[in-house]
Design goal:
By secondary structure, the protein is of the alpha/beta class. 49% of the residues lie in helices and 14% in strands. The chain has a 6-stranded parallel beta sheet with strand order 3-2-1-4-5-6, sandwiched between helices. The radius of gyration is 22 Å and the shape is globular.
Length: 461
Protein backbone atom coordinates (compact mmCIF):
# COMPACT_ATOMS: atom_id res chain seq x y z
CA UNK A 1 0.00 0.00 0.00
CA UNK A 2 1.31 3.44 -0.96
CA UNK A 3 2.21 5.83 1.86
CA UNK A 4 2.44 9.58 1.33
CA UNK A 5 3.77 11.77 4.15
CA UNK A 6 2.91 15.47 4.30
CA UNK A 7 5.52 17.58 6.13
CA UNK A 8 3.95 20.91 7.08
CA UNK A 9 0.43 19.50 6.84
CA UNK A 10 -0.88 22.45 8.87
CA UNK A 11 -1.02 24.27 5.52
CA UNK A 12 -4.61 23.06 5.49
CA UNK A 13 -5.87 24.46 2.17
CA UNK A 14 -2.84 23.11 0.33
CA UNK A 15 -3.04 19.76 2.12
CA UNK A 16 -6.75 19.57 1.34
CA UNK A 17 -6.14 19.98 -2.39
CA UNK A 18 -3.43 17.34 -2.48
CA UNK A 19 -5.36 14.83 -0.38
CA UNK A 20 -8.41 15.19 -2.61
CA UNK A 21 -6.27 14.84 -5.73
CA UNK A 22 -4.53 11.69 -4.48
CA UNK A 23 -7.59 9.85 -3.17
CA UNK A 24 -9.65 10.69 -6.27
CA UNK A 25 -7.62 8.14 -8.27
CA UNK A 26 -9.09 4.63 -7.87
CA UNK A 27 -5.55 3.20 -7.76
CA UNK A 28 -4.69 5.49 -4.82
CA UNK A 29 -8.05 5.45 -3.01
CA UNK A 30 -6.60 3.28 -0.23
CA UNK A 31 -3.30 5.19 0.05
CA UNK A 32 -2.08 6.02 3.54
CA UNK A 33 -1.55 9.73 4.09
CA UNK A 34 0.42 10.72 7.16
CA UNK A 35 -0.10 14.33 8.22
CA UNK A 36 2.83 15.82 10.12
CA UNK A 37 3.14 19.35 11.52
CA UNK A 38 4.79 20.99 14.53
CA UNK A 39 1.54 22.87 15.31
CA UNK A 40 -0.97 20.43 16.88
CA UNK A 41 -3.90 22.83 16.38
CA UNK A 42 -3.36 23.25 12.65
CA UNK A 43 -2.68 19.52 12.37
CA UNK A 44 -6.06 18.80 13.91
CA UNK A 45 -7.73 21.10 11.38
CA UNK A 46 -6.10 19.21 8.52
CA UNK A 47 -7.18 15.89 10.00
CA UNK A 48 -10.80 17.09 10.11
CA UNK A 49 -10.55 18.14 6.47
CA UNK A 50 -9.09 14.73 5.60
CA UNK A 51 -12.07 12.97 7.21
CA UNK A 52 -14.46 15.19 5.25
CA UNK A 53 -12.70 14.34 1.96
CA UNK A 54 -12.89 10.62 2.77
CA UNK A 55 -16.62 10.85 3.43
CA UNK A 56 -17.22 12.90 0.29
CA UNK A 57 -15.27 10.57 -2.00
CA UNK A 58 -16.48 7.40 -0.32
CA UNK A 59 -12.96 5.97 -0.09
CA UNK A 60 -11.25 3.97 2.63
CA UNK A 61 -7.66 5.14 3.05
CA UNK A 62 -5.64 5.35 6.25
CA UNK A 63 -4.96 8.74 7.86
CA UNK A 64 -2.15 9.16 10.36
CA UNK A 65 -1.35 12.33 12.31
CA UNK A 66 1.80 13.11 14.23
CA UNK A 67 4.10 15.91 15.33
CA UNK A 68 7.06 13.48 15.14
CA UNK A 69 8.81 13.88 11.79
CA UNK A 70 10.86 10.70 11.97
CA UNK A 71 7.79 8.67 12.84
CA UNK A 72 5.96 10.23 9.88
CA UNK A 73 8.74 9.19 7.50
CA UNK A 74 8.70 5.51 8.43
CA UNK A 75 7.49 3.51 5.45
CA UNK A 76 6.94 6.57 3.28
CA UNK A 77 7.06 6.16 -0.50
CA UNK A 78 6.55 9.87 -1.14
CA UNK A 79 7.24 12.86 1.08
CA UNK A 80 5.46 16.11 0.23
CA UNK A 81 7.01 19.17 1.88
CA UNK A 82 5.03 22.40 2.34
CA UNK A 83 6.80 24.06 5.25
CA UNK A 84 7.23 27.76 6.05
CA UNK A 85 10.08 28.09 8.51
CA UNK A 86 9.48 30.94 10.94
CA UNK A 87 5.91 31.48 9.77
CA UNK A 88 4.29 34.85 9.25
CA UNK A 89 5.45 35.97 12.69
CA UNK A 90 8.19 36.56 13.36
CA UNK A 91 10.03 35.63 10.16
CA UNK A 92 7.96 37.12 7.33
CA UNK A 93 7.32 40.32 9.26
CA UNK A 94 11.07 40.67 9.86
CA UNK A 95 11.77 40.11 6.15
CA UNK A 96 9.51 43.04 5.25
CA UNK A 97 9.87 45.52 8.11
CA UNK A 98 13.67 45.77 8.39
CA UNK A 99 14.24 46.35 4.63
CA UNK A 100 11.43 48.91 4.71
CA UNK A 101 13.48 50.96 7.21
CA UNK A 102 16.11 51.28 4.48
CA UNK A 103 13.57 52.29 1.83
CA UNK A 104 13.52 48.83 0.23
CA UNK A 105 9.94 47.75 -0.54
CA UNK A 106 8.81 44.26 -1.52
CA UNK A 107 5.64 42.54 -2.74
CA UNK A 108 6.02 38.82 -1.90
CA UNK A 109 9.58 38.32 -0.65
CA UNK A 110 9.59 34.51 -0.87
CA UNK A 111 11.66 33.77 -3.97
CA UNK A 112 14.33 36.41 -4.61
CA UNK A 113 15.21 39.80 -3.20
CA UNK A 114 16.30 40.19 0.39
CA UNK A 115 13.13 38.43 1.59
CA UNK A 116 13.83 35.44 -0.64
CA UNK A 117 17.45 35.28 0.52
CA UNK A 118 16.49 35.24 4.19
CA UNK A 119 13.68 32.75 3.61
CA UNK A 120 16.15 30.47 1.83
CA UNK A 121 18.67 30.74 4.68
CA UNK A 122 15.92 29.72 7.14
CA UNK A 123 14.51 26.93 5.01
CA UNK A 124 17.51 25.14 3.50
CA UNK A 125 18.88 23.79 6.81
CA UNK A 126 15.46 22.35 7.70
CA UNK A 127 15.03 20.75 4.27
CA UNK A 128 18.46 19.17 4.53
CA UNK A 129 17.56 17.82 7.99
CA UNK A 130 14.42 16.28 6.46
CA UNK A 131 16.47 14.76 3.64
CA UNK A 132 19.02 13.37 6.13
CA UNK A 133 16.19 11.68 8.02
CA UNK A 134 14.90 10.30 4.72
CA UNK A 135 18.35 8.92 3.84
CA UNK A 136 18.19 6.93 7.07
CA UNK A 137 14.50 6.02 7.29
CA UNK A 138 13.05 5.94 3.73
CA UNK A 139 16.01 6.30 1.32
CA UNK A 140 14.04 5.28 -1.77
CA UNK A 141 11.20 7.77 -1.21
CA UNK A 142 10.71 10.76 -3.51
CA UNK A 143 10.81 14.19 -1.86
CA UNK A 144 8.23 16.45 -3.55
CA UNK A 145 8.96 19.99 -2.42
CA UNK A 146 6.52 22.89 -2.62
CA UNK A 147 8.41 25.20 -0.22
CA UNK A 148 9.86 28.47 -1.52
CA UNK A 149 12.33 29.83 -2.48
CA UNK A 150 12.08 26.93 -4.92
CA UNK A 151 15.32 27.31 -6.87
CA UNK A 152 17.48 27.88 -3.80
CA UNK A 153 15.89 25.00 -1.93
CA UNK A 154 16.16 22.49 -4.75
CA UNK A 155 19.69 23.53 -5.65
CA UNK A 156 20.77 23.00 -2.05
CA UNK A 157 19.00 19.63 -1.79
CA UNK A 158 20.61 18.43 -5.01
CA UNK A 159 24.05 19.48 -3.80
CA UNK A 160 23.85 18.29 -0.21
CA UNK A 161 21.81 15.06 -0.30
CA UNK A 162 21.31 11.87 -2.31
CA UNK A 163 17.53 11.86 -1.95
CA UNK A 164 15.45 11.85 -5.14
CA UNK A 165 13.67 15.18 -5.24
CA UNK A 166 11.60 17.43 -7.48
CA UNK A 167 10.26 20.91 -6.82
CA UNK A 168 6.71 21.75 -7.87
CA UNK A 169 4.89 25.00 -8.53
CA UNK A 170 1.50 25.70 -10.11
CA UNK A 171 2.59 28.84 -11.96
CA UNK A 172 3.00 27.14 -15.37
CA UNK A 173 -0.52 25.67 -15.69
CA UNK A 174 -2.01 28.55 -13.70
CA UNK A 175 -0.67 31.16 -16.10
CA UNK A 176 -1.64 29.08 -19.14
CA UNK A 177 -5.24 29.08 -17.89
CA UNK A 178 -5.07 32.87 -17.48
CA UNK A 179 -3.70 33.38 -21.00
CA UNK A 180 -6.37 31.11 -22.46
CA UNK A 181 -9.01 33.34 -20.88
CA UNK A 182 -7.28 36.47 -22.15
CA UNK A 183 -7.40 35.30 -25.78
CA UNK A 184 -10.80 33.64 -25.48
CA UNK A 185 -9.81 30.03 -26.14
CA UNK A 186 -10.49 26.90 -24.06
CA UNK A 187 -7.45 25.77 -22.13
CA UNK A 188 -7.69 22.29 -23.67
CA UNK A 189 -7.08 23.76 -27.13
CA UNK A 190 -3.70 25.21 -26.15
CA UNK A 191 -0.27 23.59 -26.31
CA UNK A 192 2.83 25.19 -24.82
CA UNK A 193 6.51 24.68 -24.06
CA UNK A 194 7.94 26.45 -21.02
CA UNK A 195 11.53 26.58 -19.81
CA UNK A 196 13.66 28.65 -17.46
CA UNK A 197 13.86 28.95 -13.70
CA UNK A 198 10.98 28.83 -11.24
CA UNK A 199 8.95 32.06 -11.31
CA UNK A 200 11.04 33.25 -14.25
CA UNK A 201 10.33 30.66 -16.91
CA UNK A 202 8.88 31.70 -20.25
CA UNK A 203 6.43 30.26 -22.76
CA UNK A 204 8.80 29.47 -25.63
CA UNK A 205 5.84 28.04 -27.56
CA UNK A 206 2.22 29.03 -27.12
CA UNK A 207 0.08 27.55 -29.88
CA UNK A 208 -3.14 25.79 -30.88
CA UNK A 209 -2.98 22.13 -30.02
CA UNK A 210 -4.58 20.82 -33.21
CA UNK A 211 -3.01 23.07 -35.86
CA UNK A 212 0.22 24.36 -34.30
CA UNK A 213 -0.88 27.96 -34.99
CA UNK A 214 1.24 30.46 -33.06
CA UNK A 215 -0.99 32.21 -30.51
CA UNK A 216 1.48 34.93 -29.55
CA UNK A 217 -0.09 37.36 -32.07
CA UNK A 218 -3.32 37.09 -30.07
CA UNK A 219 -1.46 37.87 -26.84
CA UNK A 220 0.19 40.90 -28.48
CA UNK A 221 -3.26 42.01 -29.60
CA UNK A 222 -4.48 41.77 -25.99
CA UNK A 223 -1.60 44.05 -25.02
CA UNK A 224 -2.21 46.51 -27.86
CA UNK A 225 -5.90 46.80 -26.97
CA UNK A 226 -5.16 46.93 -23.23
CA UNK A 227 -7.58 44.06 -22.58
CA UNK A 228 -5.34 42.43 -19.97
CA UNK A 229 -6.40 42.32 -16.30
CA UNK A 230 -4.96 45.14 -14.14
CA UNK A 231 -3.00 42.64 -12.05
CA UNK A 232 -1.08 41.54 -15.17
CA UNK A 233 0.28 44.88 -16.32
CA UNK A 234 3.91 44.02 -15.49
CA UNK A 235 3.81 40.71 -17.32
CA UNK A 236 2.25 42.16 -20.45
CA UNK A 237 4.83 44.95 -20.39
CA UNK A 238 7.54 42.27 -20.30
CA UNK A 239 5.87 40.51 -23.24
CA UNK A 240 6.25 43.75 -25.15
CA UNK A 241 9.90 44.16 -24.13
CA UNK A 242 11.08 40.54 -24.28
CA UNK A 243 8.76 38.93 -26.80
CA UNK A 244 7.82 36.08 -24.45
CA UNK A 245 5.36 35.71 -21.58
CA UNK A 246 6.66 34.90 -18.09
CA UNK A 247 5.09 32.25 -15.88
CA UNK A 248 4.82 33.98 -12.52
CA UNK A 249 2.55 36.82 -11.47
CA UNK A 250 3.26 40.51 -11.92
CA UNK A 251 3.65 41.10 -8.18
CA UNK A 252 6.31 38.37 -8.07
CA UNK A 253 8.15 39.40 -11.22
CA UNK A 254 8.25 43.09 -10.30
CA UNK A 255 10.67 42.36 -7.43
CA UNK A 256 12.99 40.10 -9.47
CA UNK A 257 14.13 42.98 -11.69
CA UNK A 258 15.27 46.58 -11.10
CA UNK A 259 12.66 48.33 -13.26
CA UNK A 260 9.33 48.59 -11.44
CA UNK A 261 9.68 49.20 -7.69
CA UNK A 262 11.77 52.37 -7.53
CA UNK A 263 11.96 54.96 -4.80
CA UNK A 264 12.88 57.66 -7.32
CA UNK A 265 9.98 56.77 -9.62
CA UNK A 266 7.03 56.09 -7.29
CA UNK A 267 4.54 56.69 -10.10
CA UNK A 268 5.45 53.26 -11.50
CA UNK A 269 3.70 51.60 -8.56
CA UNK A 270 0.32 52.94 -9.68
CA UNK A 271 1.04 52.73 -13.40
CA UNK A 272 1.80 49.00 -13.18
CA UNK A 273 -0.58 48.23 -10.31
CA UNK A 274 2.16 46.81 -8.07
CA UNK A 275 0.84 45.65 -4.66
CA UNK A 276 3.59 46.52 -2.17
CA UNK A 277 3.51 44.39 1.00
CA UNK A 278 1.14 42.05 -0.82
CA UNK A 279 2.30 38.92 1.03
CA UNK A 280 1.96 40.63 4.40
CA UNK A 281 -1.64 41.57 3.60
CA UNK A 282 -2.35 38.06 2.33
CA UNK A 283 -1.01 36.56 5.56
CA UNK A 284 -3.14 38.93 7.66
CA UNK A 285 -6.23 37.86 5.74
CA UNK A 286 -5.32 34.23 6.26
CA UNK A 287 -4.83 34.62 10.00
CA UNK A 288 -8.18 36.40 10.44
CA UNK A 289 -10.03 33.77 8.39
CA UNK A 290 -8.41 30.84 10.19
CA UNK A 291 -9.34 32.30 13.57
CA UNK A 292 -12.92 32.60 12.32
CA UNK A 293 -12.75 29.01 11.05
CA UNK A 294 -11.65 27.75 14.48
CA UNK A 295 -14.62 29.47 16.12
CA UNK A 296 -17.04 28.04 13.57
CA UNK A 297 -15.57 24.54 13.71
CA UNK A 298 -16.13 24.49 17.46
CA UNK A 299 -19.82 24.70 16.55
CA UNK A 300 -19.49 22.00 13.88
CA UNK A 301 -19.69 24.15 10.75
CA UNK A 302 -17.72 26.14 8.15
CA UNK A 303 -18.13 29.95 8.32
CA UNK A 304 -20.30 31.51 5.63
CA UNK A 305 -19.02 33.82 2.91
CA UNK A 306 -20.82 36.74 4.60
CA UNK A 307 -19.10 36.04 7.94
CA UNK A 308 -15.68 35.87 6.33
CA UNK A 309 -16.21 39.06 4.32
CA UNK A 310 -17.28 40.88 7.47
CA UNK A 311 -14.20 39.65 9.36
CA UNK A 312 -12.01 40.84 6.46
CA UNK A 313 -13.64 44.29 6.22
CA UNK A 314 -10.35 46.10 6.96
CA UNK A 315 -8.17 43.89 4.72
CA UNK A 316 -6.96 44.89 1.26
CA UNK A 317 -9.84 44.04 -1.14
CA UNK A 318 -7.60 42.08 -3.53
CA UNK A 319 -7.22 39.33 -0.90
CA UNK A 320 -10.84 38.92 0.08
CA UNK A 321 -12.05 36.77 -2.80
CA UNK A 322 -9.20 34.27 -2.59
CA UNK A 323 -9.45 34.03 1.19
CA UNK A 324 -13.21 33.46 1.12
CA UNK A 325 -12.82 30.70 -1.47
CA UNK A 326 -9.99 29.02 0.44
CA UNK A 327 -12.22 28.64 3.51
CA UNK A 328 -15.63 27.97 1.97
CA UNK A 329 -14.11 25.51 -0.52
CA UNK A 330 -12.92 23.31 2.33
CA UNK A 331 -16.30 21.60 1.93
CA UNK A 332 -15.66 20.98 -1.79
CA UNK A 333 -13.54 18.18 -3.24
CA UNK A 334 -12.43 19.15 -6.74
CA UNK A 335 -9.28 18.29 -8.66
CA UNK A 336 -6.65 21.04 -8.42
CA UNK A 337 -3.94 22.03 -10.92
CA UNK A 338 -1.16 20.76 -8.61
CA UNK A 339 1.23 18.21 -10.10
CA UNK A 340 1.86 16.24 -6.89
CA UNK A 341 -0.85 13.61 -7.33
CA UNK A 342 -0.04 13.22 -11.04
CA UNK A 343 3.54 12.25 -10.19
CA UNK A 344 2.45 9.73 -7.57
CA UNK A 345 -0.18 8.20 -9.85
CA UNK A 346 2.24 7.90 -12.79
CA UNK A 347 5.02 6.36 -10.70
CA UNK A 348 2.61 3.89 -9.08
CA UNK A 349 0.71 2.87 -12.23
CA UNK A 350 3.18 3.52 -15.06
CA UNK A 351 0.76 5.91 -16.77
CA UNK A 352 2.99 8.31 -18.71
CA UNK A 353 2.31 12.04 -18.51
CA UNK A 354 4.20 15.32 -18.66
CA UNK A 355 4.49 17.72 -15.75
CA UNK A 356 6.66 20.79 -15.15
CA UNK A 357 9.27 20.16 -12.48
CA UNK A 358 12.15 21.99 -10.86
CA UNK A 359 15.23 19.84 -11.34
CA UNK A 360 19.02 20.11 -11.52
CA UNK A 361 20.36 21.53 -14.78
CA UNK A 362 22.29 18.46 -15.83
CA UNK A 363 22.46 19.15 -19.57
CA UNK A 364 18.85 20.35 -19.68
CA UNK A 365 19.22 24.04 -20.65
CA UNK A 366 22.52 24.65 -22.42
CA UNK A 367 22.97 28.36 -21.71
CA UNK A 368 22.21 28.31 -17.97
CA UNK A 369 24.80 27.25 -15.37
CA UNK A 370 25.32 23.54 -14.80
CA UNK A 371 23.74 22.32 -11.58
CA UNK A 372 21.41 25.27 -11.05
CA UNK A 373 17.71 24.59 -10.60
CA UNK A 374 15.66 24.82 -13.80
CA UNK A 375 11.95 24.45 -14.48
CA UNK A 376 11.23 22.29 -17.53
CA UNK A 377 8.80 19.67 -18.84
CA UNK A 378 9.43 16.24 -17.35
CA UNK A 379 8.13 12.84 -18.41
CA UNK A 380 6.82 10.85 -15.44
CA UNK A 381 6.09 7.12 -15.49
CA UNK A 382 7.09 4.02 -13.52
CA UNK A 383 10.74 4.95 -14.09
CA UNK A 384 10.34 8.19 -12.18
CA UNK A 385 10.88 11.79 -13.28
CA UNK A 386 12.80 12.31 -16.50
CA UNK A 387 13.54 15.94 -17.46
CA UNK A 388 13.23 16.95 -21.10
CA UNK A 389 16.35 18.36 -22.70
CA UNK A 390 15.45 21.85 -23.94
CA UNK A 391 18.82 22.96 -25.37
CA UNK A 392 19.56 26.68 -25.64
CA UNK A 393 16.86 29.20 -24.79
CA UNK A 394 16.78 32.74 -26.26
CA UNK A 395 19.95 34.49 -25.14
CA UNK A 396 18.25 37.55 -23.65
CA UNK A 397 16.02 35.33 -21.50
CA UNK A 398 19.03 33.36 -20.29
CA UNK A 399 20.82 36.63 -19.46
CA UNK A 400 17.84 37.86 -17.44
CA UNK A 401 17.60 34.55 -15.55
CA UNK A 402 21.33 34.69 -14.79
CA UNK A 403 20.82 37.84 -12.71
CA UNK A 404 18.55 35.77 -10.45
CA UNK A 405 20.69 32.62 -10.58
CA UNK A 406 23.68 34.62 -9.28
CA UNK A 407 21.70 35.47 -6.14
CA UNK A 408 20.47 31.90 -5.77
CA UNK A 409 24.00 30.52 -6.10
CA UNK A 410 25.46 32.73 -3.38
CA UNK A 411 22.52 32.14 -1.05
CA UNK A 412 22.88 28.37 -1.42
CA UNK A 413 26.61 28.67 -0.80
CA UNK A 414 25.97 30.68 2.35
CA UNK A 415 23.47 28.11 3.59
CA UNK A 416 25.70 25.11 2.90
CA UNK A 417 29.09 26.34 4.08
CA UNK A 418 27.75 28.89 6.62
CA UNK A 419 29.86 31.78 5.31
CA UNK A 420 28.40 35.17 6.22
CA UNK A 421 30.08 37.16 3.43
CA UNK A 422 28.12 35.22 0.82
CA UNK A 423 24.92 36.68 2.28
CA UNK A 424 26.25 40.20 1.78
CA UNK A 425 27.29 39.33 -1.77
CA UNK A 426 23.93 37.76 -2.59
CA UNK A 427 22.15 40.93 -1.43
CA UNK A 428 24.59 43.13 -3.36
CA UNK A 429 23.92 41.23 -6.59
CA UNK A 430 20.16 41.09 -6.14
CA UNK A 431 18.72 43.19 -9.01
CA UNK A 432 16.10 45.04 -6.94
CA UNK A 433 18.18 45.51 -3.77
CA UNK A 434 21.26 46.65 -5.68
CA UNK A 435 19.26 49.19 -7.66
CA UNK A 436 17.84 50.85 -4.53
CA UNK A 437 20.46 50.73 -1.75
CA UNK A 438 24.09 51.69 -1.27
CA UNK A 439 26.69 49.10 -0.28
CA UNK A 440 26.78 50.38 3.30
CA UNK A 441 22.99 50.17 3.51
CA UNK A 442 22.97 46.63 2.14
CA UNK A 443 25.56 45.37 4.63
CA UNK A 444 23.86 47.12 7.56
CA UNK A 445 20.46 45.73 6.54
CA UNK A 446 21.85 42.18 6.27
CA UNK A 447 23.41 42.51 9.74
CA UNK A 448 20.08 43.62 11.20
CA UNK A 449 18.20 40.79 9.49
CA UNK A 450 20.60 38.13 10.72
CA UNK A 451 20.40 39.48 14.26
CA UNK A 452 16.60 39.68 14.19
CA UNK A 453 16.21 36.10 12.93
CA UNK A 454 18.06 34.74 15.96
CA UNK A 455 17.80 30.95 16.25
CA UNK A 456 15.98 30.61 12.94
CA UNK A 457 19.41 30.91 11.34
CA UNK A 458 22.60 28.93 12.04
CA UNK A 459 25.84 30.60 13.09
CA UNK A 460 27.92 31.90 10.19
CA UNK A 461 31.68 32.21 9.90
Amino acid sequence: MTKVTFIGAGSTVFAKNLMGDIWSYPELADATICLMDIDPKRLKQSERVARHIINTLGVKPTVECTTDRRAALRGADYVICMIQVGGYEPATVIDFEIPKKYGLRQTIGDTLGIGGIMRGLRTIPVLIDIARDMEEICPDALLINYANPMCMNQWALNRATDIQTVGLCHSVPGTAHELARDIGLPYDEINYLVAGINHMAFYLKFERRDTGEDLYPLLRQVYAEKRYPPHNRVRYEMLRRLGYFVTESSEHFSEYVPWFIKERAPELIGEFNIPLDEYIERCKAGIISWELLEEAEAKGRIPSEEEIMHALRDVNPMHKGWTVRSITDLNKVERSVEYGSLIIHSMETGAARTIYGNVANDGVIDNLPAGCCVEVPCLVDANGIQPTRVGAIPSHLAALMSTNINVQSLSVEAALIRKREHIYHAAMLDPHTGSELTLDEIWSMVDELIEAHGDYLPAYQ
